[in-house]
Amino acid sequence: MVKKPAPDATRRSEKSRRAIYDAALALVGEVGYPKTTIEGIAARAGVGKQTIYRWWSSKADVLLDAFLDLGEQAGQEPYEIPDTGDLASDLKAVLRATVDELFDPRFEAPARALTAEGVVNEQLGREFVTKLLEPQLELYVRRLRAGQDAGAVRPDVDPRIALELFVSPLAQRWLQRTAPISYEYTDTLVDYALHGLAPR
Amino acid sequence: MVKKPAPDATRRSEKSRRAIYDAALALVGEVGYPKTTIEGIAARAGVGKQTIYRWWSSKADVLLDAFLDLGEQAGQEPYEIPDTGDLASDLKAVLRATVDELFDPRFEAPARALTAEGVVNEQLGREFVTKLLEPQLELYVRRLRAGQDAGAVRPDVDPRIALELFVSPLAQRWLQRTAPISYEYTDTLVDYALHGLAPR
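^ inputs. structure came back:
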């Protein structure tokens, strides 16, 4: 995790931190997680290895912070999914924004590399799910709970499972490239999930 | 793809084929796709490299056939999802069988290794989706179409998208280990997908 810079930290150390994040994300996207090393990140960022070890204890930690920072830069961090009173449009809007993010070139290659590693490396996978993915899913849980309070979602529905009906299909199409992704597709997922496949 | 053995093929060549499949699945599960080689498979199977090249042109082809064979052994190959007239129970039954398969130790490690590689290796990913995953998803498409004919699924629903509402959540929980998997969970997915999250 990021240790806050000491009070005498200069703009220079902030610049180093940014260079380290950029190098870590670029490297993991290019050579994969197993071949990404602290040494390689340091060389690419133009800093000494010790600069990295001063702030982080492992490459997993550097990458985790680099992804958190990427989310912050994209303005997507701990916030709430808007609640306009129209659950369907609110969910459609956030999924459309997710589609944009998934195909953002700064994000795609490193996110694929890390997800691939998490599939076969249980410890890394669990760490990234806990620290990166679950906090995002929790935003859907909260929006669906508000929907329950407003009568838009059945009270007996478990929001943590419910969100998977539209989040997981998008994740699988992106990860496994099973079929094309479009706004129309994610809008359809929301409609199907809310109204069900069976006739009403 | 498997070339059918010549008419004079002996039980011995069938035994070699089985040994090659077992070796390929074990190796990719243990060392991952990039480090699995035809040479390694041959050594582990106790056959000459040329025996493998006689039947397959690449390690991707060997692995594809090994997975197809695993599915056949498990009795899951090109068949239809049962149609008892009760769509919900039919879908729940096939998802419960999928849960069993996902945690079958013969299947899990090689399937994870190959899926992980497909996430970062677009060509391999697309080949395995086309040849292994899509034919399985097509079974759901057909069962949902029968459900449309029987009035159990709305006629305007696209079955290829609809199936993702219960298939993709299970896939994501398994691949990314986002949350536990149980029969109760997959049953719930089917109920939510058919009846929707919104009150009726």
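Chain B touches chain A through 53 residues (CB under 8 Å). Residues 170 and 186 of chain B are 7 Å apart (CA to CA).
thumbs up if we can close this ticket
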